[in-house]
Amino acid sequence: MSTDTSHKHASKFMSLVLRHEPEKIGLQLDAQGWADVDDLLQRMADHGVALDRPTLQVVVETNDKQRFALSDDGLRIRASQGHSIQVDLGLEALQPPAWLYHGTVARFVGAIREQGLRPGERQHVHLSLDRQTAHQVGARRGAPVILSVNAGRMHADGHVFHRSANGVWLTTHVPPQYIAG
User: Fold this and answer.
1) Do domains 3-79 and 100-180 have the same CATH topology?
2) 100-180, CATH topology level
3) Helix, strand, coil percentages in the chain from 3-state DSSP, rounded to 5
4) Cα(27)–Cα(41) distance, rounded to whole angstroms?
5) Where residue 166 falls among pLDDT bands split at 50, 70, 90?
6) CA angle, 61 then 66 then 71, to 5°
7) Phi and psi, residue 47, nearest 5°
8) What is the per-residue pLDDT for 63?
9) CA 21 → CA 24, 75, 116, 150, distances in Å?
10) Residue boundaries of the structural domains of the chain
């Protein structure tokens, strides 16, 4: 397995356990989603995904979406967003830019027009700062459709926004009247 392939495999495995199924490897996350790095590395190795600290650092730093964050002291790690398990990332509410974007595919557009954007199994709806990033997100599932979200108007109407450590904008729901495109 090449280094890039092994890093990608490790990143996907870390996404699974830090965002969705820590119990899969017996990992304990605190209320803010942090795990002890040494514990994570040991439990990953026990499940066939062996990394040392320097390699973990490379995986965190080179992840194309910056999905992971290390604590300032380097002793803890967590996913930046995208959790389907309950965690409090401790993000402050922020005023979003006037427009944010969401990448999807055509088969979901009808339901989105009726119900708005919902987080599904995650805690938040993920929105991108620019159309290019939204295009990349949507392209993971097929031919992308980019929806524009009037985040400025949503915020003025009382909806709360947060920005994750990797720049993804988060909100709990985008009602259909705020969606264009």
Assistant:
1) no
2) ADP-ribosylation fold (3.20.170)
3) 40, 20, 45
4) 10
5) confident
6) 65
7) -110, 25
8) 80
9) 5, 21, 27, 33
10) 3-79, 100-180
SS3 77: strand
- pLDDT of amino acid 135: 96
Residues sharing a CB contact under 8 Å with residue 38, sequence separation 6 or more, in sequence order = 75
Q: Where are the alpha helices (DSSP H) in the chain?
A: 3-15, 37-46, 53-62, 106-115, 131-139, 151-156
Compare 78 and 4 and report the one with higher pLDDT. Answer: 78
pLDDT 10s digits, 72-92: 999 999 998 888 888 888 889
Which fold does the domain 3-79 belong to in CATH? Arc Repressor Mutant, subunit A (1.10.10)
Beta-carbon neighbour count of residue 116 at 10 Å? 16
CA 81 to chain centre: 4
Question: What is the rounded CA–CA span in Å between residue 6 and residue 93?
Answer: 36
Nearest to 179 by CA among 82, 110, 132, 95: 110
